[in-house]
Write a structure and sequence with these properties.
Elements (H helix, E strand, L loop, with lengths): L6 H11 L6 E6 L11 H12 L4 E5 L10 H7 L4 H9 L16 H7 L5 E2 L7 E5 L2 H5 L13 H7 L3 E5 L9 H4 L8 E9 L10 E9 L6 H8 L12 E5 L2 E7 H15 L19
Parallel strand pairs: 1-2, 1-5
Antiparallel strand pairs: 2-4, 3-4, 5-9, 6-7, 8-9
Family: Belongs to the antibiotic N-acetyltransferase family.
Pfam family, one: Antibiotic_NAT
Protein name: AAC(3) family N-acetyltransferase
């Protein structure tokens, strides 16, 4: 039986992969696939903090679906319900509160980063990102409703800050950064999203909700696995592979430069997706489309 991995061993693996002090890194992690750890998610988060140091920043997706009226999760859960049952289900749905609403399906590591002292979270009710570290405020401070993961979102700030993407025990299907490449075409396909956000409390202290219906880009991750396989074969101008691959703990890890990878994704989408969105998709990594 494999002994639980320590944070020190994880840190060694992360540094061997190429993560450095001062890095800004967006992390996607499956705790189950990186092997047994001494203290669960805390072991991985401690290793990440040690690897990027006091000048670095850790970013995680903290998406939510429980407050959505237009996500696949909502449609799956309400399938076969009567109108009355649907009304009751909707009445019990929470409104998104960036300070308190847990993420949906993002994993224990993401949740631990979200709840760390000093961590900040962007305000989007469906595709928020949480960050801890020196650049946390810069990354999370602006996230408009009609821009889930595009050029006015935290992903764009990560792109500009030359962040790196770390996939720990997960495949490219989970690579949120690729969504930024979907905003490359002049007129990407759009759709309507619908969700609840937390509003001001009544005088009696009872929480209220507000409904938000808006139009935004129709995000599609169905071909991210194919894009990732292609990206792993690409090399930089100096002949190095764009994607660094190695073992961290008991799982496969990949480290890639966000800006260069997104630029390559834009070109790949142009070739492999037809005009108007191509392989129309209806989900975002792990949880389905944001709304």
């Amino acid at each position: 039986m494999t002994a639980p991995y320590t944070s020190h061993k994880f840190t060694i693996g992360l540094r061997a992969l190429g993560l450095r002090s001062g890095d800004i890194v967006m992390v996607h992690c499956s705790l189950r696939r990186v092997g047994p750890t001494e203290r669960g998610a805390a072991t991985v988060v401690e290793a990440l903090r040690a690897a990027v140091g006091a000048k670095g920043t850790i970013v995680v997706p903290t998406f939510t679906a429980a407050n959505s009226l237009s996500s696949p999760i909502y449609h799956e859960r309400t399938r076969g319900m009567t109108a009355q049952e649907i009304d009751a289900f909707q009445a019990a749905m929470p409104g998104f509160d960036p300070d308190n609403t847990p993420s949906t399906g993002m994993g224990a590591v993401a949740e631990m980063v979200r709840t760390m002292p000093g961590a900040l979270r962007s305000a989007h009710p469906q595709t928020s990102l949480a960050a801890w570290g020196r650049q946390a405020e810069t990354i999370t401070r602006h996230h408009p409703l009609n821009c889930h993961l595009g050029k006015d979102s935290p992903l764009q700030r990560l792109y500009e800050l030359k962040a790196r993407v770390l996939l720990l025990g997960v495949g490219f299907e989970s690579c949120t950064a690729f969504h930024l490449g979907e905003y490359g075409p002049p007129e990407p396909p759009v759709r309507v999203y619908d969700c609840f956000v937390a509003g001001d409390r009544h005088a009696g202290g009872r929480p209220v909700r507000e409904r938000r219906t808006f139009e935004a880009v129709d995000l599609n991750d169905r071909d991210f696995g194919q894009l990732g396989e292609w990206l792993e074969r690409q090399r930089t101008n100096t002949g190095q592979r764009v994607v660094r691959r190695g073992r961290v703990g008991g799982g496969i890890a990949r480290l890639l430069p966000m800006a260069h990878s997104v630029d390559l994704a834009v070109e790949w989408f142009k070739e492999h997706r037809t005009a108007g969105g191509g392989s129309a998709g209806d989900r975002i990594p792990f949880i389905g489309p944001p709304g």
